[in-house]
């Protein structure tokens, strides 16, 4: 797999592909960042972007993780003291998931976001951004989308300035970050900063086939006990032969095959014996053709996910 394939695998959108190709041609070690609100348990939703950062790291990128404590505060995720503790927990989880501690720059947002220069740049951007544009950009990520607070209108402007201040070439995040990233791409060049390339990962369904939510219990925390992971996957939505919007297949696509080049579906000899797969597409086809039963798929998913998450349970 070449650098471009590694950086773009499992990505829903690249803005723009031509810019990314040019960046990879011109720089041996471009830079990429993801910002995370320290606001609770690290779960599979976070893990998708961590996986993408690992891909980028393996492709020679310099990686920055922004622990966005002030963003979390503006989005009403707790007191600064509470958020600071969660930020340190997040960092330990990300390292345990496979980010190189030596080659990853972890930055706390409040370490620079209260500087006069940063605040002046945010105010400059505020002068050129309409309230409607700021609100629309927050619709997917705001806790109070129906009745937003003024603090949440500052959020996308700060996120744009983070990209400039951290001096990164690529901004990565879930597709829900797209509108914020588009503000950055349009506004930063007018202020003398470079426009970032953007990598957007998909937003996956929860294990029950509905919108992912910790309150529904349809998600998995990366430090969750193995028994709980197995139980949740065993109950997951996984209709026989259905490959679209299948959360168990998503575990293989976005997490398991990212770390294991080949996997084994274990089955009793009376049911045909074990089946080996060296690609997600091969597994997906076999499941669509009903050659793999949902229970066997779930059993394998639980086995591999627990192998992936075991270092997190040990370290955090």
Automatic annotation (TrEMBL):
A motif ('KMSKS' region) lies at residues 211-215. The keyword tRNA-binding does not apply. GO terms for molecular function: ATP binding; tyrosine-tRNA ligase activity. It is found in: Cytoplasm. Pfam families: tRNA-synt_1b (PF00579). GO terms for cellular component: cytoplasm. L-tyrosine binds at residues 33, 155, 159, 162, 177. ATP binds at residue 214. It is an enzyme of class 6 (ligase). GO terms for biological process: tyrosyl-tRNA aminoacylation. Keywords: Aminoacyl-tRNA synthetase, ATP-binding, Cytoplasm, Ligase, Nucleotide-binding, Protein biosynthesis. Its main location: cytoplasm. The keyword ATP-binding applies. PROSITE patterns: AA_TRNA_LIGASE_I. Transmembrane segments: none annotated. Its EC number is 6.1.1.1. It catalyses: tRNA(Tyr) + L-tyrosine + ATP = L-tyrosyl-tRNA(Tyr) + AMP + diphosphate + H(+). Belongs to the class-I aminoacyl-tRNA synthetase family. TyrS type 3 subfamily. Catalyzes the attachment of tyrosine to tRNA(Tyr) in a two-step reaction: tyrosine is first activated by ATP to form Tyr-AMP and then transferred to the acceptor end of tRNA(Tyr). NCBIfam families: PRK08560.1, tyrS. PANTHER family: TYROSINE--TRNA LIGASE, CYTOPLASMIC, TYROSINE-TRNA LIGASE. Homodimer. This is Tyrosine--tRNA ligase. It comes from Methanocella paludicola (strain DSM 17711 / JCM 13418 / NBRC 101707 / SANAE).
């Amino acid at each position: 797999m070449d650098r471009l394939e590694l950086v773009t695998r499992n990505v829903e959108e690249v803005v723009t592909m031509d810019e990314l190709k040019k960046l990879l041609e011109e720089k041996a070690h471009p830079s990429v960042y993801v910002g995370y609100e320290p606001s609770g348990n690290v779960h599979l939703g976070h893990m998708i972007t961590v996986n993408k950062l690992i891909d980028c790291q393996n492709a020679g990128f310099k990686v920055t993780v922004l622990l966005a404590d002030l963003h979390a505060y503006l989005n009403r995720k707790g007191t600064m003291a509470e958020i600071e503790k969660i930020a340190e927990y997040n960092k330990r989880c990300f390292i345990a998931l496979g980010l190189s501690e030596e080659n990853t720059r972890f930055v706390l947002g409040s370490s620079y976001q209260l500087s006069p220069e940063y605040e002046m740049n945010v105010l400059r951007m505020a002068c050129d951004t309409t309230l409607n544009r700021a609100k629309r950009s927050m619709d997917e990520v705001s806790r109070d989308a129906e009745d937003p607070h003024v603090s949440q209108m500052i959020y996308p402007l700060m996120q744009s300035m983070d990209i400039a201040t951290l001096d990164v070439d690529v901004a990565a995040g879930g597709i829900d970050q797209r509108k914020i990233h588009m503000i950055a791409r349009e506004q930063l060049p007018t202020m003398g900063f470079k426009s970032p390339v953007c990598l957007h990962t998909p937003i996956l369904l929860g294990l029950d086939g509905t919108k992912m939510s910790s309150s529904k219990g349809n998600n998995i925390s990366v430090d969750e006990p193995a028994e709980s992971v197995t139980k949740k996957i065993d109950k997951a939505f996984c209709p026989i032969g259905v490959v679209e919007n299948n959360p168990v297949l998503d575990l293989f696509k976005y997490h398991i095959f990212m770390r294991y080049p080949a996997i084994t579906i274990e089955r009793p000899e009376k049911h045909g014996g074990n089946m080996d797969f060296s690609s997600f597409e091969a597994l997906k086809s076999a499941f669509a053709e009903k050659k793999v039963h949902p229970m066997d798929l779930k059993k394998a998913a639980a086995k591999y996910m627990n192998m992936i998450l075991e270092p997190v349970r040990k370290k955090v």
